[in-house]
Each structure stands twice: as C-alpha cells, then as structure tokens.
Amino acid sequence: MRALYDSKTKTMFDHGIRYFFTDEAKYRSWLYVEVTLAQSQAELGYIPKDAAKEITERAKYENLDFKKMEHIYERVGHGFVPFVKVLANTCGESGKYIHYGVTTQNIQQTGELLRIKEINKRFMIVISEILDNLSKLAKENSNTIMPGRTHGKHAVPITYGFKVAGWIQNFLNDVIRLKELEPRVFESMMGGAVGAYNSMGEYGPKINELVAKKLDMTPMAIPLRNISAQKLEYINALCLLATSCDRIAQEVYATSIEEFGEVSEPFFKGTIGSSTMPHKINPKLAKGIIANSQKLYSVPTSGYYSSTRPFEADSSTNMLFDGLLSESVELITEILLRTEELTRGIHIHKNRMKQNAYLNDGLDNSEYVMMTIAKRLGKDKAHALIYKLAMEAEQSDEGYEGVLLSNEYLKETFNKDELECMLKPERYIGLSSELALKFSKDAKIQADELREKYNNRLVF
Question: Distance of CA 26 to CAs 4, 80, 108, 109, 412, Å?
Fold first, then answer.
C-alpha cells in the first residue's frame, strides 16, 4: 500500500474502494474487458458468435488456474502472457479467439481505467457526504462570530459559516472538474500493438467504439499507448481535490491548538494521544489528511517526465503510470475518508470564537469606523485618521475605544454608545451569514445530485 496509514484507517468505512486495489479486482477487470472485446467482435462479425458465447460463459475468475499462471510467469517473464494463456485454456475451443487482434496494454490500461472509473464513482459518493457535512456545518454556524484572519493576524470579523462556505466552494469546483474530465480519462483503447488497428483493420475502430459503449467509456480517438496526458490530468485533479481537504485539515490542526481553542476533532472514549503524556488528545484525522496530501502533491512530476518518451509505446512509461495512478488513488482515498469523518464530527467552540473576536477590543472593526467617517471625509483622509488612532491604541494601555473617544473629530461626530456599537464584531460581518446559508443550500443540492448520478455500480 502506498498511502500513509495509522490506527484511524481501520475504523473508517471505505465504500468498497480498497477492494479495487487488490489483485482479484485487477484480474476481474481484465476478464471483463476480454469478454467485452469478444462480445463486441462477435456482434460485428469479426469472430464467431458461438465463440463469444463460450468465452462469456467460461471466462470467470473462479475458473482461472493461478498456480499454472505463476508457473508460466516464471518461465516467460511477462506480466500478462500467463493470464492470456490460462484464460485461453479455460475457454476451451473458443480460447483461440481470446485476446484477438489486441495487445497487452490494450487490456491492461483499459482494465485499469475501468477500475479507477468505479473508484471514482465512490469518490463522488464520499464527496457528497462531505458536502452534506459542510452544508450542515455552514447552516448551524451561519451566525457564529469569529475573527477573520489574513497573514496570520486578525482582519475583520466573519462567521464560521462563511469560512465553511469557502470550503464548500472548493469542493463544488472539484466536482465540476472531475465531471468534465471523465470522458477524456476513462477511455477504451483496442488499437493493437501501436494503435493503428494493424490486426483488425477496418473492424478496429468499430470494435473499439462498441467496447467503449459496453464499458460506459469513451473510445480513444487514436488508441496510442504513449498518450498519457489524460492520466496526468486525472492525477492533477486528485491533487486539487486533496488541497480542498488539506485546507480544512490545516485549519483544524492550527485552530485546535489551545491558544486558539476554536475547534476540536471528534474524540472517542479510550483514544490515547501519547504513551507518556496522559492528557494528550492529538488531531489524528487532520494529521493524516495533511501527510497524505503532501505526498500526493509530489506524484505528478514524475509523470510529466515520463509522458514524453519517444515512439509509439514505452514499457518504462507503462510501468511508471501504473504505479502513479495506483499511488494517487490510494492517497486520495485516505484523504477523502478522513475528511468525511472530520467534517462530520468536528466540534465548534462558539464561545471561544466569540472571545477571540473580541480579543483586540474593537480594533478588528477599524474598517467599519473608517468607512463610516469616509462618507464625510473621503476614504484617504478617513484611512489616515483611523490608522493613526489604531497605532496609538496598539502602543497604549488606554484601549481602542478610549483612543477613539479622545479624538476631537470623532468625539464631535459620534457619542459613546454609537462608537461602542461600531466596535462590536457582530455588527460588521458583511454578508457572512447570507453566504453561509446560500452555500449550505448549494452543497446540499450538489450532494443529492452526486448520489443520484454515481450510485450505479458495475460488477465484474
């Protein structure tokens, strides 16, 4: 396994994703593609229909002789030929039409993309669950006051629901991106040795189209084995999806520190954070998201170098991309499952958020005061005045409100109650609440659509 695992991994429901990492799933996908190829060839008159029927009946995972396959592998040293020989023998007289007119990578790459296509459906279901969690979180905290922060310092007040709305926006973009690339990534490529249909001739493109239709994939326009851009595009999309999860994890990791105390991960009785410090409760979910994300970000680089290898095919490229796709899928699986559990169980400490919003005694509302007097003085003069007073407050013990009230212009313009109101964080949150509720609704709509579209499962 290429992802970074810990004790949390064993407790998370994986939606059946990890099954597709197994050798059984690999062999079953190869069988499914070989059977689909034979059926398509028979429908178009390229091989006898009786042969396709017998292949369909006999080409079962349970019928494969894996001991014989291993024996052949030791002798021939080829990763796919033993499978073809055993399968041909399993299919009796019709075995002579197994793997007819195609080459190893046609089946292996199409099978791999078929498995990833099924994994991708499950990714979309997990994303729908994350969106459900974030929808609830945004709605429940649409009015939860907290400090907005830029460059690690307080900026202007926001609500926690608004922060979550930003996370939702990221995932909505991820969904759009993943949907758009599906036709380009999940392709069948029954083109033979170099992709020119040398064996199947004029039958070739029609067979490739029919195989694609049966697999609910796209026929690769020119089924060249050295085209890898679509795989890189998918890995890049997974990296961007990881950033959406990583952003949440990074913020939870930071703001669960005692000095912030604004959120905490879900805690289960009996969980131990340290072998020596009994009080420790560590952010287990967040740390796994961050670590796996950072590993995933490094994956595409190797693919870029390998994707430019010369000629019509290259075994080093095939080997590398097989590893890169597997690693990427395993990493994003761990990231998504942890993000779902984190967003479902995160604890929001509303009182602490409000305390932190009041930490600067109203300084965070300087823009509010500035924009109020800008209506009379203009923006530039208002900024200069409030900047001067804000800096005075930072360097004195008088407090921001006292500094403002000591200024002659402000004292003449506002009374004490008016200034006090302007310095309350809850009075200056912009459209935080409205945006939180809007994106809560959008997230719920998208979650429902994803469940409806991606709940269909292919059995092979």
Answer: 22, 11, 9, 11, 78
